[in-house]
Amino acid sequence: MLGKLSGFDDTIVAVATAPGLGAIAVIRLSGSKAFDITNALFKGKNLLLQPSHTIHFGSIVSEGTVIDEVVVSLYKGPRSYTGEDVIEISCHGSPYIQQQIIDATTKAGARLAKPGEFTQRAFLNGKLDLTQAESVADLIASNSAASHQTAMQQMRGGFSKELHHLRDQLITFSALIELELDFSQEDVEFADRTRLYELISSSTTTIRHLIDSFRMGNVIKNGVNTAIVGKPNAGKSTLLNTLLNENRAIVSDIAGTTRDTIEEVLNIEGILFRLIDTAGIRESNDTIESIGVQKTLEKIKEAGVVVYLFDANEMTLEELRQQVASFEADNINFLLVGNKTDIAGEAAIRAKFSEIPGILFISAKNHDHVNDLKAALVEKVMSGDINTEDTIVTNARHHSALQEVLKSLFDVKGGMDNGLPGDLLALDIRRALHFLGEITGEVTNEDRLDYIFSKFCIGK
Ligand code: GDP
């Protein structure tokens, strides 16, 4: 188990609300002296005599000066966020008042909290496991409905539950194997090989599913880079503006005027699409244009999804076929969008391209079928058998540990196929358990914890 971390016995203090001016601010203290320190500064009731989970009005007085009228909430450990005695002082939101109260508490014996230290204490006191603690940071940073939902699901322990289940399975496995080792002289097999094999197979499937969910998790947490590409005058800028419903990119009749990449973000059904408007793809001798094209090609490779926009009146069937072949050769996740259906009419245009499946036809200028395009974008990135209600891995640290778990499980499976002795199988199982434990925090060390929590902001 974990040793106590340095400074763990201190009573810590920080502003828990956002920095700057607000109507009210909350200052939080946690630790064995939280009640004493606050009581020494509080004019009103004797806080030491009040029951836990109550709130009290009074003032904070430091060195004879009244700093502010406040409301103090009391949480006796272990029934608190950190598991320690916690006090929350709600004061008026001025940064000056906040600073004065913080100064008064530090003079009275509290220490300024390090980033994430409150949540770190909650973890160390067994209030949260590591994945839940990390999801607190994600929850605070969530900026779309989907990222909020996954962080919330993790904080409530969805992911940990799944991992604990796996861990239990593997522990059963290794217990059976190890029992066998104790009786190795007698040449008995307690561990039914077929059952062991099934256990490993089902664990492998679960892990693989979690690993696969990371792509989706990344989309949910960080958004997806979306490149809108096509020849000059296809209507890329117009589409971009239609999508964003504002006119930031330059729309012009002169071919090739959008030379730079512009990034805008679109929120569709809670998923963030980072739109990169690019110069057109075409062979070019013009140097400036070439730079634009070069950038486009780089951007396409980075993009999670590429919207290939073409003028459906100008584009020939053969040209489009070639374009599709080149996207497929480069393994690009693309969406074909034929624009300007208002010119020749949608029916005629559909007939022209009927041989190529999956094209969306729109008129960016008239906003025709732009909603279909948005729905198709969501569908593109949600592809696969993962939906937002599943447990989704959003954290790169978890992702890489899961890959190690999978590797170890493969070794076990391979070992069983090759009739490896039980003690060697047990070693690989223990390796898998080790990496699982790293995710939930059952196996960890002080440096790693400090690193994880240092990515939080102060006061969390
Ligand atoms: P870009 O070079 O690909 O960014 O193309 P633009 O967005 O600058 O559009 C080129 C020209 O096509 C402009 O004159 C637009 O007004 C026009 N355009 C864009 N979308 C449509 C459309 O759906 N219908 C019609 N008729 N014209 C369009």
Automatic annotation (TrEMBL):
It is an enzyme of class 3 (hydrolase). It comes from the Bacteria. Residues 223-382 form the TrmE-type G domain. GTP binds at residues 233-238, 252-258, 277-280. InterPro entries: G_TrmE, GTP-bd, GTP-bd_TrmE_N, GTPase_MnmE, MnmE_dom2, MnmE_helical, P-loop_NTPase, Small_GTP-bd. GO terms for molecular function: GTP binding; GTPase activity; identical protein binding; metal ion binding. The keyword Amino-acid biosynthesis does not apply. PANTHER family: TRNA MODIFICATION GTPASE GTPBP3 (PTHR42714), TRNA MODIFICATION GTPASE GTPBP3, MITOCHONDRIAL (PTHR42714:SF2). Homodimer. Heterotetramer of two MnmE and two MnmG subunits. Exhibits a very high intrinsic GTPase hydrolysis rate. Involved in the addition of a carboxymethylaminomethyl (cmnm) group at the wobble position (U34) of certain tRNAs, forming tRNA-cmnm(5)s(2)U34. Belongs to the TRAFAC class TrmE-Era-EngA-EngB-Septin-like GTPase superfamily. TrmE GTPase family. This is tRNA modification GTPase MnmE. It comes from Chitinophaga jiangningensis.
